[in-house]
Amino acid sequence: MVATTRPDVQTVREIVARACRAPSLHNSQPWRWTWNGEFLRLYVDDRRLLPYTDAFHRQGIIACGAALDHAQVAGAASGWEMQASVFPDPLDRAHLASLSFRGRHAPLEADELLGAAIETRYTDRLPFTAPFQWIGLEVVLRTLCRNFGTHLQVLDRSQHRDLDRISDTAAALRRADPRYQDELHGWAGDTWRPYAGIPVSARATAQAAEKVVAGRMFPVGAAGAHLQPSTEDRAAIVVLSSDNDTVESVLECGRALSQLLLECTVEAMATCTLTHVTETPSVRAMVSDLLGLDYPQVLVRIGQATAAPPPRTPRLPLESVFDLGHDSPGPGDGRSSAAAT
Fold this sequence. Notes:
341 residues; alpha+beta; NADH Oxidase; 2 domains; five-stranded mixed sheet; four-stranded antiparallel sheet; 16% strand; Nitroreductase-like; Nitroreductase/BluB; oxidoreductase activity; Nitroreductase family protein
């Protein structure tokens, strides 16, 4: 490793741009970054949280954790060692992490592969064929999650049917909630917004959605229009869980989720996160009972894609999520107390 130096602004901008390719609930992108020439700081942006879908803000924090890990992966792929300090300011819980640049290094092959995976990963809401070489991949994914204090458990096939029933229960409860429905259609419906949300090209057709085990009910889309009628969903399903529901554990779960998704992408596996069965207490309790876990956070479907990737989902312009030359966002521009919940 060569002597420690600081990156130029363009390098930081590129790292933040790649960090913002992280997945988030309905592609809401609830993060904000600042760079003061020494630290790259990550904040949760309360303007982009979804209160009627994610009342406890867990999924928002998980998304920020994924973005934090994406930033470190992007930095490593660019030859920078970045060190994360989580919740560095006890008086500002919206300040989730600070990243410092510790020095340059020659990227390893693994760094470059994971960095490239940031650009090619996407959420695939179609049915999958079974993942190949699953036993070895499962061991790797379990280890990656453990590095962030997060547990990975694989559902056996007999539990898929039970999870599907739990998913149906979640859909029935949500169908009767007008605020949830307004929020869903605002982020993933005909009122889809520029630079965020889930476009029609990334949402499954009604016929394709029916084949997916435990999928969230979205407004009808265009993905999977040419899917073979005989296609069955043979995805593996894993659940990531924590030892508790503290915001620190939830953020670490997000970092683990990023590692899992990127590793699967490197191995040419398609992925789809499932959070609708962990968002509300009553449905989450059903998942807990089914799997014997106290704090399930997010589930992920993993398998081989059955259709070509859709167009890349959009991201917010960098200037709307990145402040240059400030220690922290100013009043009213997205700082949040959500992380204290």
